[in-house]
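[job 4471] stage=fold_predict status=RUNNING
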Amino acid sequence: MSSHPQTHSMEFHCQFKTKKNRNMKFVGIIPARYASQRFPGKPLAILGGKTVIQRVVEQVKKVLDDVYVATDDDRIFNAVAEFGGNAIMTSTKHKSGTDRIEEAVENNNQEIDLLGNRIKALEESLLRNQAELQNYKRRREEEVSRMLKYANEDIVTDFLPILDNFERALVVKDTISEDANKFLEGIKMVYNQTKSLLEKYEVKEILAQDMEFDASYHQAIMTDCDKNKPNGIVLEVLQKGYMYKDKVIRPAMVKVNKIDE
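[job 4471] inference complete, writing structure tokens
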């Protein structure tokens, strides 16, 4: 069986390795054909319980980092695969082992380039997926944080009409009986407790009276003209507005000053 100088195979494998970690790795390529005139089928001849090609590969591996068998025969290719070796299919038209090795080197360089491109594409895809995962995690954390932050919003909103009714009950005429006044004091006490409870959970009344109209916090229900006050000033609060933490849960319904020019 013929051999070949290792320069081609070493060059082939060095190109692959230097791209990865700059460490040179030495590889041998063994040409093997079945249709030999002197000894047909020699690579598959059994020698001491192993094929000749297996014994050659094992011996070469003792001095090189890796070994490939370049062949034009499926039987040799399969035999190499069976004992865990590396086999490369080449053309049946080669006249020498040197030609077969050159084809193996050329084909494998192309495969390595394709593999390198594929690895690069996979690395880029991995980076994109990692970035998308980080963005998803960030959005999810923000969403969960927001849900927790405003978890009591519905309960707080349901309390507001109760607060409105307390305030309406407290707006009475000056002349009331003593018994009614005592009853009114009880309502006022419950009202103050309810208001304190809402403030504890960061519910705050939106300032509106005599403030400049702000559509972010106020809802204009009516307009009036008072030339003694600036244009766009809130003249009257028809229904109080409230904020829950930093969120408007109900805008203040107001009457706005509008001076005709």
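[job 4471] summary: The first strand starts at residue 27 and ends at 32.
[job 4471] exit 0
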